[in-house]
Amino acid sequence: MVRQKRRYLLVEILPSTSGSFRFTDTEIYHAILDQVARIHGDYGVGSIMTSFNVISVRSHVHKIRTKV
């Protein structure tokens, strides 16, 4: 049996202006998928789709998870 590694990326979004804005998990998920598609095409999106996940930890901190 092959062991699958789980990789996590913790992202904190800090606004450059004094106003506060928030991103939903869905907005971050689609923004990352759009960039993966732009850089790596359909193969890249297909490679991460089965295990890609975005979870809000706090309003401005998100955890991004994927298996490698």
Quick tags:
single chain; 68 residues; alpha+beta; 3-stranded antiparallel sheet; 1 helix; 3 strands
Explain how this protein is built.
The protein is an alpha+beta fold and 68 residues long. The protein has one domain (6-67). Helices cover 37% and strands 26% of the residues. The chain has 1 helix and 3 strands. It has one helix spanning 25-49; strands at residues 6-12, 53-56, 61-67. A 3-stranded antiparallel beta sheet has the order 1-3-2. Strand 2 (53-56) and strand 3 (61-67) form a beta hairpin. It is globular. The two termini are 15 Å apart. 3% of the residues are buried. The model has no long low-confidence stretch (mean pLDDT 80).
Largest beta sheet: strand ordering: 1-3-2
The coarse overall form would be globular
The low-confidence parts are none
Please work out how many helical segments DSSP would assign: 1
Report how far the terminal alpha carbons are from each other.
15 Å
Number of E-type strands: 3
- Total tally of structural domains: 1
Rg result? 14 Å
Structural class: alpha+beta
Series of secondary-structure elements, N-terminal to C-terminal = EHEE
Tell me what portion of residues adopts beta-strand conformation. Answer: 25-35%
Mean pLDDT: 80
Reported for the largest beta sheet, the result is: 3 strands, antiparallel
* Residue share in helix: 25-40%
